[in-house]
Design goal:
Shape: elongated
Strand order of the largest sheet: 5-6-7-9-8
Number of domains: 4
Family: Belongs to the NusA family.
Function: Participates in both transcription termination and antitermination.
CATH class of the largest domain: Alpha Beta
Subcellular location: Cytoplasm
CATH architecture of the largest domain: 2-Layer Sandwich
Number of helices: 12
Pfam families: KH_NusA_1st (PF13184), KH_NusA_2nd (PF26594), NusA_N (PF08529)
Helix content: 25-40%
Number of strands: 18
CATH topology of the largest domain: N Utilization Substance Protein A, Chain:P, domain 4
Subunit structure: Monomer. Binds directly to the core enzyme of the DNA-dependent RNA polymerase and to nascent RNA.
CATH superfamily of the largest domain: NusA, N-terminal domain
Radius of gyration: 36 Å
Structural class: alpha+beta
Largest sheet: 5 strands, mixed, barrel
């Protein structure tokens, strides 16, 4: 060690936040381990660091005894008196160990400790930086691909965009600039992992906060989002200002705000007639959130009309929705999409029945569950 090492300690502490005391402690433990390997024990070893010279010194502590059984731990009274006439039985005497290996161990340990501390510090900085952006949108560059992920460079780390987090039909090339939603940041033994998505429902919410001032300032609040990325999304909104129409604000004049959002995505679907993928657009339905759950479900089933919503007394999150016979297919949606999105949006398990099916069920006197009907006549259609 040397004064140059002390300067290095100081620079590392100032620039990297690695404390000098941590390095000294790690080097001390390495020297203790080296002593243990050489002599089979380390209990008698005392290691001191000289702040002025930057040197580590290794001492053996021996007890003054009448008869010596272990020369590494003990010294005879006769030999002790030869050193100083002041020594007595039971005194502890320090002897400096000076083999060259301790100097090499100290230097190597300091280097290893510094490198390890820098790796940990860099990892901690990376983790904290991206943890702050969790649940936010970030811009990045497509770097590379493999069978599991698209790797997106966010600056100081490659984020992982998995297949399930991608939008069906979207195709990217290396060096493309894309926006992604950071939904999870992990610190594990292998390093920091950042997981991003373009299909996450929260990405729609964050984009609306970016693009629509009334959402950003809280005048209009997005209460929930249900999404089947690349195809259809339902967004429930409410206004905190009676003079501001929540749905109109989100949609924008001529649908301008919705177009801003959908332009961020580039889904495609396979066209059997053309035998190729064709561009498509994600549809976004905006509905009004209301505190009354029956009315909220009524709104969420749109564009289908609803006759009544019946809640299960035994399961507070289960609802039966009765719709006109002619609206059953519309209420259920293609491959059940409409009712599925409505269920995710409202947080209720929703069963759909046509009016005639419900009448038959009533006539058979085998209701699916106890009914608590909600009068929807007052709901403006």
């Amino acid at each position: 060690m040397s004064k140059e090492m002390l300067d290095a300690f100081r620079i590392l502490e100032e620039d990297k936040g690695i404390k000098k005391e941590d390095i000294i402690e790690a080097v001390t433990e390495s020297l203790r381990s080296a002593y243990r390997r050489r002599y089979g024990q380390a209990e008698s070893a005392a290691i001191e660091f000289n702040e002025k010279t930057g040197d580590f010194r290794v001492y053996t502590v021996r007890e003054v005894v009448d008869e010596v059984f272990d020369s590494r731990l003990e010294i005879s009274l006769k030999d002790a008196l030869a050193i100083s006439s002041a020594y007595e039985l039971g005194d502890k005497i320090k002897f400096e160990e000076a083999p060259a290996e301790f100097g090499r161990v100290a230097a190597q340990s300091a280097k290893q400790t510094i490198m390890e501390k820098m790796r940990k510090q860099t990892r901690a900085i990376t983790y904290n930086t991206y943890k702050e952006h969790e649940n936010e949108i970030m811009s990045g560059t497509v770097e590379r691909f493999d069978n599991r992920f698209i790797y997106v460079n966010l600056g100081s780390i490659e984020a992982q965009l998995s297949k399930q987090d991608q939008i069906p039909g979207e195709v990217f090339q290396s060096h493309d600039r894309i926006e992604v939603f950071v939904y999870k940041v992990e610190d594990n033994p292998r390093g920091v992992n950042v997981f991003v998505s373009r299909s996450h429902p929260e990405m729609i919410k964050r984009l609306m906060e970016q693009e629509i001032p009334e959402v950003y300032d809280g005048t209009v609040e997005i209460m929930s989002v249900a999404r089947e990325a690349g195809d259809r999304t339902k967004v429930a909104v409410r206004s905190h200002n009676p003079n501001v129409d929540a749905i109109g604000t989100i949609v924008g004049r001529g649908g301008s705000n919705i177009k801003k959002i959908t332009s961020k995505f580039h889904p495609a679907r396979y066209d059997q007639k053309l035998d190729r993928m064709v561009p498509t657009e994600e549809n976004i339905d905006v509905i009004e959130w209301v505190p009354d759950p029956a009315e909220f479900i009524y709104n969420a089933i749109a564009p289908a009309e609803v006759d009544q919503v019946i809640f299960d007394e035994e399961d507070s999150k289960h609802a039966l929705v009765v719709v006109p016979d002619s609206k059953l297919s519309l209420a259920i949606g293609r491959r059940g999409q409409n009712v599925r999105l409505a269920a995710h949006l409202t947080g209720y398990r929703i069963d759909i029945k046509s009016a005639s099916e419900y009448e038959e069920m009533e006539a058979s006197q085998e209701p699916a569950f106890e009914e608590v009907e909600s009068d929807l006549n007052s709901v403006d259609e």
